[in-house]
Design brief:
This protein is α+β, with helices and mostly antiparallel strands. About 25% of the residues lie in helices and about 35% in strands. Strands 1, 2, 3, 4, 5 and 6 form a six-stranded antiparallel beta sheet that branches.
Length: about 150
Amino acid sequence: MSYEKGRRWVADPVEIRAEQLTPFSRAMGRATGYGVAEGDSSYHDDPGHAKELGYRTAVAWGLHTYGLIAQAVEDLLGAGLAPEREIAVRFTRPVFEGERITTTLTLESAARRPDRMQRLTLAARCAIDDGSTVAEGQVVVLARASAP
């Protein structure tokens, strides 16, 4: 794979489905201590509760969208990716159940290191089908200079 500045990769769109939201909310609650207990409702997994709060339906966690960026990087670099990485994301609007998110990565810079690794800086953008940006940021990773 060549690391040319400006090169762009677009991941397949991912639909945010209702059946994903409750397990994700429960897992987040267990992992962070923040979230909802079994039997409770949250605007993240209960469309009715979300509507009571003024949303049109359930709202996906920001970390759900963040995970799509991480997955796009993993899919792009695969075996060539080192475990060291940084992801900084700004969420620009909520993502609702039923929306589809497409993640785009654009190479901003590539710097070869003496250990045959490249330090890659990628711009990341997540958008829904109408083109509205829902998250944007930057990813810095180490990848093999000869990644597939």
